[in-house]
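Dear support,

I submitted the protein below through the web form. The confirmation email said the job was done, but the results page showed an empty box. After a refresh the structure appeared. I'm attaching both so you can tell me whether what I see now is the final result or a partial one.
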Amino acid sequence: SRQIHDLAKDIEIAYRTEAKDMRQLQKVGDKLLQSAMDMRIVLGEPGFRGNWREAMQSESIKRELVRLTDSLDLAIDVLKLALGRSQLLDTAFERANLIKGRIDRVCDVDITGYSYWYDTSPRHFTLHITPLSVADKFHEQIEIKQGAWIFTSATLAVSGDFKHFTDRLGLKPKQQFSLPSPFDYEKQ
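What the results page shows now:
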């Protein structure tokens, strides 16, 4: 919701400084701000973390989510009319589309392999998508940056076996070995 608050603030600034003839900008900014605050309230007490999939079953959350996305759609439509008038308005249009896309994605909870969750603070809320496995993404990074990869930690191997670590990261090591720790546990 911080991104929505910042967007609303920038729309207000653009209205007051660069597009005084477009009163709709002020109304759109106010509506965005209000719908984000209403969504924050309906998500529960500050400091709460919850399951977004479950939360989306609530009628009150569904209703506020529709209001929030409708506010973003309206902002996009109004900002589209102002394209080319200023860099601030052009950037606001791009950001509104980006935020809308992110909200659409986090609401598509039927995509498996992710944990969908949210948290609240006194003034804001955050929607999260966390992958259950990073193996595919990590493997992509290794392929992009060809070369030798060295992983060091006192806890990579379990009973001298790296399988748990390599499986979690999607690694297919060509060579692996463990060196004894220089730390003297008995004396320290």
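Response: this is the final, complete result; the empty box was a page-load delay. The chain has a mean pLDDT of 92.
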